[in-house]
Amino acid sequence: MRRPTLEAVAARAGVSRATASRVVNGQTTVAPHIRDAVQRAIDELGYVPNSAARSLVTQRTDSIALVVSEPGTRVFSEDPMFSTAIRSASMELEAVNKQVVLMLASSAKSHARVERYIAGGHVDGVMLISMHGADPLPSALSRLPVPVVSYGRPAVPVDIPFVDNDNVGGAEAGVRHLVETGRRRIATIAGPQDMIAGQDRLSGYRNVLRDSDRRSIVAVGDFTRESGAIAMRQLLGDDPALDAVFVANDLMAVGALQSLRQAGRRVPDDVAVVGFDDIEAAKYTEPPLTTLRHPVTEQAAAMVRLLLGLFEDGPTDPVILPTELVVRESA
Questions:
Q1: Strand partners for 126
Q2: How much of the chain, in percent, has pLDDT values that exceed 90?
Q3: Which end of the chain is more exposed for a tag (fewer CB within 10 A), N or C?
Q4: What sign for the dihedral angle of Cα 83, 85, 88, 91?
């Protein structure tokens, strides 16, 4: 069977081709009863717009690039942050008939590929996730005539609207909980220091310890479970008397719990542990993990709404979402 044409839709609806085209392209200058007639004709004929031709008319692709500055081994790993953010952003865009183009960019070659693709007009906007300090993409993409937003405050000074969670305030709440429950030697496993989340959560930890006259005890991980286990062993070697640890994400906290168990330390009797993110696994660790809830789903959805607003010259003010202390048995 031949593919139904726009002319056939117009004839079935009893309107001109130009009117049918305006309805297909989502223009609002068509009377409701005419729009309904055209839509009925589309449904009856099974008409599917030619996306290439439509893009020429509307200057839109209805595609949004989601650029993740991590290798595939990290994005498609046990870290649920990536899958949760991608799923939430995809669902939010699907609701307005737009699709996600997922692009991974963790090398100079892939950075150049992403920049070429976006400069080529293949997408209407860009969402950036998991940016690192040396990443050239935020600056490069901000110079293109394409709206760009970031999941998290960019690690470099660049004029890109962003949605973040209160990393500093969340870390302060977690460490303050340890102080208020009587812990004296409170260490931290910080996140990577070329990422804003890693920097801000370390700042929150240090703020509380400085105000409570306690000294900082710091090891640094990379937000993976293995790095948390290694960092915990390092901390126990540096200060065997530590009685609490604030961990900058839950995956590293899972690794820290494993190392504490292997070292014969009881949680929370000997060492209290607080994480950050409240991933699903935090409920099922042994013991269940006290943590800060990071609203990943809400943050990704807010990022999409911020980007869609830019298409209509909407606000560019940063959006900061609150975190929440979730107290379980580990602290």
A1: 65, 148
A2: 77
A3: N
A4: negative
What's the CA gap between 304 and 289, in Å, rounded?
30
CA–CA separation, 277 vs 314, rounded Å? 30
Q: Which of 293, 284, 285 is nearest to 259 (CA)?
A: 285
Rounded Cα distance, 256 and 49, in Å: 54
Residue with tokens 């709440």: 173
The two structure tokens encoding residue 15: 């309107």
| Of 144, 122, 115, the residue nearest 64 (C-alpha) | 122
SS3 content of the chain, % helix, strand, coil (to 5): 45, 15, 40
pLDDT tens figures, 217-249: 999 999 999 999 999 999 999 999 999 999 999
ω before 268 within 30° of 0 (cis)? yes
